[in-house]
TrEMBL record, chains A, B:
SUPFAM superfamilies: Nucleotidylyl transferase (SSF52374). Beta-alanine binds at Q66. Its EC number is 6.3.2.1. Belongs to the pantothenate synthetase family. The active site is at H42 (proton donor). Homodimer. This is Pantothenate synthetase. It comes from Paenibacillus enshidis.
Amino acid sequence: MMIVRDVQQLRAALASRRRAPGTGIEKKVGFVPTMGYLHEGHASLMRAAREQSDIVVLSIFVNPIQFGPGEDFESYPRDEERDAAVARREGVDILFIPTVEVMYPQPTRTKIRVSGLTDRLCGASRPGHFDGVTTVVAKLFNMVQPDYAFFGMKDAQQVAVLQQMVTDLNINVQIVPCPIVREHDGLALSSRNVYLSEEEREQALVLSRSLREAHEGISQGQMATVGELRSFLEAGITSVPLARIDYVEILTFPSLQPLKAEERLDDIKEDVIAALAVFFGKTRLIDNMRLEKAEVLSHV
Amino acid sequence: MMIVRDVQQLRAALASRRRAPGTGIEKKVGFVPTMGYLHEGHASLMRAAREQSDIVVLSIFVNPIQFGPGEDFESYPRDEERDAAVARREGVDILFIPTVEVMYPQPTRTKIRVSGLTDRLCGASRPGHFDGVTTVVAKLFNMVQPDYAFFGMKDAQQVAVLQQMVTDLNINVQIVPCPIVREHDGLALSSRNVYLSEEEREQALVLSRSLREAHEGISQGQMATVGELRSFLEAGITSVPLARIDYVEILTFPSLQPLKAEERLDDIKEDVIAALAVFFGKTRLIDNMRLEKAEVLSHV
C-alpha cells in the first residue's frame, strides 16, 4: 500500500497503475472517500471496492467545510496509524491523506449545491453541510477519477445527493451504495459512537430497535400509513430518557420527497426511507431503514 | 470530422481516438466549447487547439440556463450547417452538438457557483448567468475530459471565473485564454453582432476606439489614475448617441477586485482590466482591454 499526501503524488501513483503494461487495457479504479477513524462500516466499503475494482483508493480527510460552527470539526476523532493498518489489511492500494492546505490551498470560492434534496433531514439540521460534502467529493472525484465510488447507506441522504450531483454534472463515476453495518446489538457503526458514555451507548440502541420493530410491524400489517410509522418510531425513541429527537422523517428514496401522514405505505410508487437523527447528550446519531417497493407490497 | 449528438457517442469517439494504438501513449485533447454561429474569434480558438493538441473537440450548445428571463435564448443565432463547415475547415476532429434534452435530461438540481468573481461586471447585470456558465462548462469538461480548454479573452470575466472553478475543484484541465479577435475596423467579433443595424454597427466602433485611445493615453502619460481612465472611457462612449452604458469598470485581473478612483495605475500590483458592456438598441456588446503589469510600468 502506498500512502500519498499531495495531489500530484496521487495523480502520478494512479497514472502508473491504471494502465496494464503492454496491453493498453485500462484498469478499473474503486474509490472509498472517508473522514477516517475507520470502523467495520468503512471496511465493508473497502471490501466491496476490492471485489469490484482493480485498484482501490481510500481517502481520509476531515473536511472542514462540511462542519457548521459549533460542530465537532476540531474534536472529530483521528487515528492515522490505526487507519493505515485497517486500510492495509483490507487490501487498499493507495491511501490518500491530504491536509487542509492540500485540499484548500486558497480559500475556495467555488461551491457545488444540490437543491431540493438538501433542504430536508440532515440538510435542514446542518445548513451548508451538503454543499461542503458535494464540493469536497467533486474535488476528490476530479483527483482520483474513479470508475466506482463506495458510500454507506447509513448516510442515505448523502447517497441520494451525490447520485443527483453525479447525474446532473455528468461525472463519469458509478456511485455504489453499500448496506449499513451494525454492532452485534444493532447499533449502526459510526466514528462518532466513541463520544457516547456507557449509558448513552446503551440507550442509543433504541434507534435500531425502533426501526427493526417498525419493519416487523409493517410486515405484520400493524401499521399502514406514513403517519402511523412515524408515530411508532417517535414513541419508541422517546421511551428512553436520554434521547432527544432531531428528526424522524418518512420520505421517498432517492428523491427524498415528503409524504403526507395519511398516505398508505403500499400506495407509494417509490422506495420509502424512514430516517432518524437523535441526540444522546452532545452526540448526534443517525440511522435509517429503507422499505423497498417490492417489500412493502409483498408484506402489506 | 465526426459529428456526435449524445454523450455516449462522444465518450466512445474520444476513447477510441485518445490511445495511440500499440504505444500506450495518451493523446492530448484540446476542447473549444461554444454556442455556435461561429466567427473568426472561434476559428482562432480552434487553430490554437489544433496547434496544441492531438485531438480537437468543438462543442456547439446554446445553454438555456445561462440566459436570464427576457434575454435572447430563443433568438440567439444558430446555423449548424455553416458551423460544421467552419469546424471542418479548421481541422476539428469531433464536433459535439447536443440538444437541450441531451444536456439536461432531467431538470438540473445541481449548480456550481463561484462567489466573489461573479457579482461584478456581467455577473451583476445578468444574475445567475455565471452559475449557468460554470455548471454547463463543468458538465462539458466531465464529458470531454480535455487536457486543454480554449476561451476568448473577450469574455474576460468568464475566463477568470472558469480558472477559479478549475483550480478550486481540482479539474484536471488547463484553461488557455486566447486574444480578442477584431474586424478590420476594430469591432470585437461576436455572434451577437448580427443583431446590429447598420447605424448601430457604425456607432459600436466607439468601444474598441475608446479602449485603443485609452491605451495610447496611458502610454503617453495623459492619464495616471483609475478614475481618469474610467472617465476617459465613459466620455468616449457617451459621445455617440446610440450607446447606453451597462458598465465601465476598471478591475484587477484575474481576481476582479474593484479599484479606487484615486489609485494610480502604476501602483497596482496585479494586471488591470478595463471592461465595457454597452447597449446599442437591444444588443448588448462587451469589450475589454488588459493592461499587463509590465506594460503599465514601462509606459508610465
